[in-house]
Amino acid sequence: MTGTQITDVAELEAVVGTPMKAAAEKVRTVLDPIDRMWLEHSPLCLIGTGDAGGNLDVSPKGDPAGHLAHVIDDHTLAIPERPGNRRVDGYRNVLANPHVGLIFLVPGRGDTLRINGRARLLRDAPYFDEMVVKGHRPILALEVAVEEIFYHCAKAFMRSKLWHPETWDHEALPS
C-alpha cells in the first residue's frame, strides 16, 4: 500500500482539528423525549458489531416506523429480529463481544441518531408481544443497554444527496 499514514491521535488532530465544544459535549447516556420520537419514526437501523478478534459487521434492520425500536426504559431498547437469510453475523459477534453501535435513520432527514451500548440476545421477553408486525412475533430481540446517545449532523447526507430522487440511477447496477 502507498500513501502517508497517520499513526497517532496527535497527528490525526493536526490534520482534522478537534471538535467544537458543542460537538464534544453532545453525548448523553439517557434517552430523552426527542430520542423516543426519533426512534418512533425510524424504519431502518444499521447495527455495527465486532467479534472477539476485531472482525466487524454492519447489518441493516428494518421494520415499519413505530415497530423497529422498542423502548423499554430511558436506558434500554430492543430491536426485533425477523426471519431472513439466517447469517446472523452480527448476533454471533454479540455473543463474543457485547459492544454495539446503532445508527437510526428517518427517510428524508439528514441527521441520524447514534446509540452505542452493550447488547444481549433474547429469545423471549414480556415485551415481545408489543413488537408484533403483521401478526408475526419476533424470533429474537437485540436488547441494548444505552451507554452513549447523540445525533450526527446532516453533512454526509447533504454531500451524498441520498434523499434526492433525481440523483438515483436505478439502471446503474444489476439487481
Outline type: globular
Report the structural category.
alpha+beta
Q: Provide the helix percentage.
A: 10-25%
Q: Helices and strands, in N-to-C order?
A: HHHEEEEHEEEH
Weakly predicted, low-confidence segments: none
Count helical runs.
5
Radius of gyration: 18 Å
Q: How many strands?
A: 7
Strand residue content? 25-35%
What does this structure look like?
- The structure is a single chain.
- This protein has 175 residues and is α+β, with helices and mostly antiparallel strands.
- The protein has helices spanning 9-16, 21-24, 33-41, 89-96, 155-160; strands spanning 44-50, 56-62, 70-73, 76-81, 99-105, 112-122, 140-152.
- Helices cover 20% and strands 31% of the residues.
- The chain is globular, with a radius of gyration of 18 Å.
- It is built from 5 helices and 7 strands, in the order αααββββαβββα.
- The chain has a 7-stranded antiparallel β-sheet, covered by helices on one side.
